[in-house]
Write a structure and sequence with these properties.
Strand order of the largest sheet: 2-3-4-1-5
CATH class of the largest domain: Mainly Alpha
Strand content: under 5%
CATH superfamily of the largest domain: Tetratricopeptide repeat domain
Number of domains: 7
CATH architecture of the largest domain: Alpha Horseshoe
Number of strands: 7
CATH topology of the largest domain: Serine Threonine Protein Phosphatase 5, Tetratricopeptide repeat
Radius of gyration: 34 Å
Length: 966
């Protein structure tokens, strides 16, 4: 209640606030307890458990709340979670109060341990699409597939067969059975490969299916995905693999073999018209449905979907099933003719054209036929106009909308309805998209008479579509636009490649910004860079400054180079990024176009070059470039670009220690993003504002910003931003003295980090977790964590984390009586921080040295260390360290016999929740001060404490610095 708010010299207000907060806390506790009881009585533990966790969070020392959470876990069958909660409760009670759990809590623990374990694992996840129609037959095949996939001998199972034989439906049915039986703990995922143009696209397709976002580290996407899958026990269903096989290496089969080698618990279920020809491959040739049983049932079902009251003649239906060898797609297509032909007429026409149902599978009977008869029959049933339109639709990869079909192929809604009726197209009402079977699409592609003209229309339409999404990406329809581009990505890449090959610079210029933002925000930097490289190779000569290049082409090349540098910088390829930016600058510096026309490209380039300068510690240069970028964006009225540049400018001022200026810039940036509705930008601004005010000790205000960022990132499903914001929140909770909450935030960071399959350890999480453990007095846990992680920091020469790990080790050593060890740790840390030249990071080390020197009774050096720490803290206004000197000054006052002064200073220090709740400060200073105070009259102690509570801490720090002299 009103956390962080107080009135000077108003003890009555403080007392009122305390009792109001306590009353509200009790009411909330009672409400939570009632709700938990209500849901548990209904057996709804899914609702009860989060409420029970919140009940515990109100006061972790309240054992009835701990017991209620344990009982709720137990009711849910989650006994291991209940036992873990007991251990956490025991650790908290021991750390905070030095006591064991109550007898009632211990008795509950013993009961839970003694009863049979009933907890079950959560159902594995999957992304299998729902069945469009009931699955018919294939019982024996399903049993055989299950035997292969649940055994240990087979890790690559390929369902082989011609197009239309039902490979995908069978694979999906088999996968669904395995989901139901919970065979794969980490899930079963469907990866459609139909729309992929090259084997390289398999990696992002698998990542998209399993929900893995690529990271901006030095590992290539292939390695990132392999690292993520290495420990997973998972089934991947790779559908329609055949077009990714090739004679040259590496092809799709090579990737499958590499995946199996790097991820030993992964199994692959593949559908393909061709074998992958791998040593570990178990082939499973698939024939047609049983002609006189399931094939007839499927055919009748397909007929009745079109003509509900149609009565099929059994003999004629069996004949059709036999003619097509029970191939499901052929049966579906045959059923469409019932609106025009009798079954006997359909059968007669198929007989005349059976050569089209030809297949290359060697182990199929000779009587098996070709699918082309079915395709040709359907094709002949179309008018010439319909044939031309349907052939043009074949240029779409991965489906299309009605609008796209009209613009590119001239297809009306009535014509699309005709194609659906003839099973030439399928319509997905949820996605509002039309799709054709891939074999039909390939068949139709052979019939396109005006191929080049249609390809140009396809490229023109798709690039215009991308251009139209640009404003949405920067505004309120951002998420919708991202989803739309994801859906059209294969079409977008096809259009981009055609436009690049034909040097259609207008098309490329339209599409560039949307595709660039898409790949940047999805963290698919390698694909984005390759996109730019493809276009640059087509439109830019070897000499990037060739004055003969048309101005519009130079302008586009500069934009492409800028985006290429963005992707290279994100992938930490600084040298290549710098070179790309230099080429872009050379093009823009010598271009015969009005400056207003190229201002956006110049502003974008300046912004990116300033980031390179900041990475290289050229802060002054970065500041100049960024301010020029802001000016240009403002001049052309580009609010989104202005916000982007203000964001970066604020970070530069923060790095320079000017937090007031940085905050004003970030506040202005947030206002613009809120006006635009830029949700991703708003979440980022909230996080950066939270970090800025955190550095100026405004803890409550910082948390408010961070909670807004967290809520928005969670609603957007943006786990990368969520990870970053949780880390800042954990630091906030640390300095707020909420050490247990800090550990919880970083535990969630760890969970997200693991779920994303990141290779590097979360350094901030490790160091801050260790510091929280130190402040809880859990020194051995902190020591083990720090000793495990410190070698990695040393190996990577990360001096910041080395220095702060050493400070943590020194604090542990000092608290446990190892003064010499503590001094060595503090001295090494101080030396590293001095070498880094970051004064705002340094006050901690001198203060810690002061404690160690005082413990060694070297008072002159202790005082000198205090002077140095106070000088830095007063100059840079860092987070909290100006409060850290007060317990040390109190100890030095004891050494001078000024016990009342010591009591006063320690009471002043305890205004900081970080110090008040810290077991470490109690161990190194608090107990000694209390022991000295016990010799004073009680009224003197009370008065001294009141004087301490009345101090303004910043004014007190300044006064102490004057008192210490030079």
């Amino acid at each position: 209640f009103m956390a962080g708010f107080t009135l000077p010299d108003a003890p009555e207000f403080d007392e009122w606030q305390f009792f109001q907060a306590d009353d509200l806390r009790q009411k909330l506790a009672a409400a939570l307890e009632a709700l938990i009881a209500h849901y548990c009585a209904q057996g709804n533990t899914d609702e009860a458990i989060p409420l029970a966790r919140r009940f515990v969070a109100l006061d972790p020392l309240h054992e009835p709340a701990q017991r209620l959470l344990m009982q709720t876990y137990a009711q849910a069958g989650r006994d291991s979670a209940a036992l873990r909660q007991y251990e956490l409760c025991r650790q908290i009670l021991q750390a905070e109060l030095g006591v064991e759990p109550a007898a009632e809590t211990q008795a509950l623990y013993r009961r839970l341990r003694s009863r049979p374990q009933t907890e079950t694992a959560p159902a594995p996840s999957h992304n299998l699409p729902p069945e469009p129609t009931p699955f018919i037959g294939r019982r024996q095949e399903l049993a055989q597939l299950a035997e292969f996939l649940t055994g240990t001998a087979v890790r690559l199972l390929t369902i082989l067969g011609p197009g239309g034989i039902g490979k995908t439906r069978l694979a999906l049915a088999a996968a669904a059975d395995l989901v139901e039986k919970e065979v794969f703990p980490d899930g079963v995922y469907f990866v459609p490969l139909t729309s992929l143009a090259a084997p390289e696209a398999i990696i992002p397709a698998i990542a998209e299916a399993v929900g893995f976002p690529f990271q901006s580290d030095n590992r290539p996407p292939r390695q990132q995905l392999f690292d993520y899958l290495r420990s997973r026990n998972m089934l991947l269903l790779l559908d329609n693999f055949e077009h990714l096989l090739a004679d040259e290496q590496p092809d799709g089969a090579t990737l499958a073999a590499d995946l199996l080698r790097h991820a030993p618990q992964i199994k692959l279920l593949v559908t393909s018209r061709e074998r992958l020809n791998l040593y570990e491959e178990q082939g499973y040739p698939l024939g047609g449905l049983d002609v006189e049983d399931t094939a007839v049932t499927l055919f009748q079902q397909a007929v009745h979907r079109r003509l509900p009251h149609y009565e099929t003649a059994p003999a004629a239906a069996i004949e059709i099933c036999r003619l097509v060898d029970g191939m499901p797609l052929a049966l579906e297509l045959a059923a469409t003719w019932t609106e025009l032909l009798s079954l006997r007429e359909i059968a007669a026409r198929i007989r005349q054209n059976l050569d089209i149902l030809e297949t290359d599978l060697r182990n199929l009977p000779a009587r098996h036929r070709s699918m082309r008869a079915v395709f040709d029959t359907t094709w002949q049933s179309l008018s010439q106009t319909e044939q031309a339109v349907y052939a043009r639709l074949s240029l779409f990869h991965g489906g299309f909308t009605a609008e796209a079909a009209r613009a590119v192929a001239g297809a009306s809604l009535k014509m699309l309805s005709t194609f659906i009726g003839k099973s030439l197209l399928r319509f997905d009402p949820r996605r509002r998209r039309y799709e054709s079977h891939e074999l039909l699409r390939q068949f139709a592609a052979e019939k396109v008479a005006d191929s080049e003209e249609v390809r140009q229309r396809h490229a023109r339409y798709t690039c215009a579509f991308l251009h139209e999404r640009e404003s949405d990406l920067k505004g309120m329809r951002q998420q919708t636009a991202l989803a739309a581009i994801e859906q059209e990505l294969e079409n977008a890449l096809t259009a981009w490649q055609w436009a690049a090959a034909h040097r259609q610079t207008d098309y490329l210029a339209q599409a560039l910004e949307s595709l660039g933002l898409f790949y940047q925000w999805r963290k698919r930097f390698g694909e984005g860079e390759a996109l730019c490289r493809t276009a640059l190779a087509a439109i830019l000569p070897d000499d990037a400054t060739d004055t003969l290049l048309p101005p519009e082409q130079r302008h586009l090349a500069a934009r492409l180079l800028t985006w290429q540098g963005v992707f290279q910088l994100a992938a930490q390829q600084l040298g290549r990024a710098r070179q790309a930016f230099q080429q872009a600058q050379a093009l823009l510096d010598d271009i015969d176009l009005p400056q207003q026309q190229i201002a956006a490209a110049r502003a974008s380039l300046l912004l990116r070059v300033s980031r390179i300068s900041m990475v290289n510690d050229f802060a002054g240069q970065a500041l100049t470039l960024n301010e020029e970028s802001v000016t240009l964006y403002r001049a052309i009225g580009d609010e989104w670009g202005t916000a982007l540049a203000l964001d970066a400018l604020g970070q530069i001022y923060a790095n320079l220690g000017d937090f007031d200026k940085a905050f004003r810039l970030q506040d202005e940036c947030l206002a613009i993003r809120e006006r635009l509705g830029d949700q991703l930008g708003i979440a980022r601004s909230y996080r950066l504002l939270g970090l800025l005010v955190l550095h100026t000790n405004q803890l409550s205000r910082s948390e408010a910003y961070l909670q807004q960022s967290l809520a928005l990132s969670r609603s957007l499903g943006n786990r990368g931003d969520l990870l970053d914001t949780l880390a800042v929140l954990g630091i906030n909770q640390l300095f707020s003295g909420r050490f247990a909450a800090c550990l919880e935030s970083f535990a969630e960071c760890w969970a997200i980090h693991e779920a994303l399959g990141l290779a590097h350890e979360p350094f901030t999480a490790n160091v801050t977790t260790a510091r929280a453990l130190v402040n809880l007095g859990r020194y051995e846990e902190a020591r083990q964590l720090t000793r495990r992680t410190l070698p990695g920091y040393r190996q990577s020469n990360d001096f910041f984390y080395i220095a702060f790990s050493l400070l943590n080790l020194g604090r542990m050593a000092l608290a446990t009586g190892d003064v010499s060890g503590a001094l060595a740790y503090f001295q090494e840390s101080n030396g590293l921080l001095q070498g880094m030249g970051e004064r705002s990071l340094r006050p901690d080390a001198p203060f810690c040295l002061g404690y160690a020197y005082r413990a060694r009774q070297d008072l002159p050096r202790a005082i000198q260390a205090m002077r140095e720490g106070l000088d830095i803290a007063i100059e840079t206004r860092p987070l909290n360290p100006m409060r850290f000197e007060l317990p040390l000054m109190a100890l030095l006052s004891i050494d001078k016999g000024e016990v009342e002064r010591a009591v006063e200073l320690y009471a002043a220090a305890r205004q900081s929740p970080y110090i008040a709740h810290s077991r470490w400060f109690e161990d190194v200073a608090g107990r000694e001060i209390e022991a000295a105070a016990s010799a004073l009259p009680p009224e003197a102690v009370t008065a001294a404490r009141q004087r301490g509570r009345d101090h303004d801490l910043e004014e007190l720090a300044l006064a102490l610095r004057v008192e210490l002299g030079e």
